[in-house]
Amino acid sequence: MADLTIHTYTAAEGGLFVNSYLLETPAGVVVVDTNLLISDIAGLTARLAALHKPLLGIFITHAHPDHFNGALELVRGREVPVHATSGVARVIREVADAKRAQWRPVYGAEWPTETYHPNTELADGQQVMVDGLGITASELGPGESHADSILLVRPPSGAPLAFIGDLAFHRTHPYTADGHTGPWLATLDRLTEELEKFGVRRLLPGHGAPTGLGLLAEQRRYLLFYREVVRRLADGAAKLSDAAKGDLEATMRRFFPDAPLTWMIGLGADAVAAELAAEPDRSPVGRES
């Protein structure tokens, strides 16, 4: 068989269209991110079982539950390394219980009652070899979540691939409610050139279909526009009124027509307003447009 076959399990809208990737090698399977809801985690587990190969490892790209919630079920009855960078692993430990308290009332029995924390922490830039795959984890710091990373995967043959987590959403509204859009933009500004130097041409995002490096520029444009609309509506305040949130949603719907997950627009409004209010004042020349 081929050195690497990539299978994708994608949740429906209720599960935020999150992708879990199954990297099938001759000897087994590596899973990148593990889905959100119990029904989708069961679907992912069934997809793994259908490959009739052992689970060789799990990699978690960042500290949001739609990427780490399924780890417990996947490792049940197995001794499997669950990898994450040190920064991502630390934040998962810090936020998992609070995320469950926040979202279990919304999702009910679909939300797992326990969290399996990464058991194998990786340093920034550390490479792990798994059945011929070279998997390198790079810390990105706060961005879409409080701790992001990307995975550079080098197959035995062919070009390297980048599993980017939620660094860029493909054709959906993104989650901005952790309030790190400034650092997120800084990462996007430098990453395209860095990935090009590694020979990466294909990005596999946490939400949406695989695509090229242009996705990073699309995400950058979205964040710049979102920040500027929030800035104008907030007028220096750390929160938006309900009316202003309605204006924000209408504006972003026009900016990005037909994109799903529109409820994300208002969810992040106050976090981004507070972020902007805390940033140093800038002249109009320096403002994003």
Word description of this protein:
Helix 5 (181-197) runs antiparallel to helix 6 (214-234), helix 6 (214-234) runs antiparallel to helix 7 and helix 6 (214-234) packs across helix 9 (269-278). The model is unreliable at 283-287 (pLDDT under 50). The protein contains nine helices and eleven strands. The termini are far apart. The strands form two sheets. It has a six-stranded mixed sheet with strand order 1-2-3-4-5-6. With 289 residues, the protein is an alpha/beta fold. The longest helix is centred in the middle third of the chain and has 22 residues, at 86-107. It has a single domain (5-286), classed as Ribonuclease Z/Hydroxyacylglutathione hydrolase-like (Metallo-beta-lactamase, Chain A, 4-Layer Sandwich), CATH 3.60.15.10. It is globular, with a radius of gyration of 19 Å. Helix 5 links the parallel strand 10 (161-165) and strand 11. The relative contact order is 0.11. It is 38% helix and 20% strand.
Annotation keywords:
single chain; 289 residues; alpha/beta; Metallo-beta-lactamase, Chain A; six-stranded mixed beta sheet; five-stranded mixed beta sheet; 9 helices; globular
Helix content: 25-40%
Strand residue percentage: 15-25%
Question: What is the string of SSEs from the N terminus onward?
Answer: EEEHEHHEHEEEEEHEHHHH
Overall tally of structural domains = 1
What is the SS-derived class? alpha/beta
Estimated radius of gyration = 19 Å
Give the N-to-C terminal Cα separation: 50 Å
Task: Give the strand order, joined by hyphens, for the main sheet.
Answer: 1-2-3-4-5-6
How many individual β-strands?
Answer: 11
- Major sheet attributes: 6 strands, mixed
CATH hierarchy: architecture = 4-Layer Sandwich
**3D shape:** globular
The overall pLDDT average reads 96
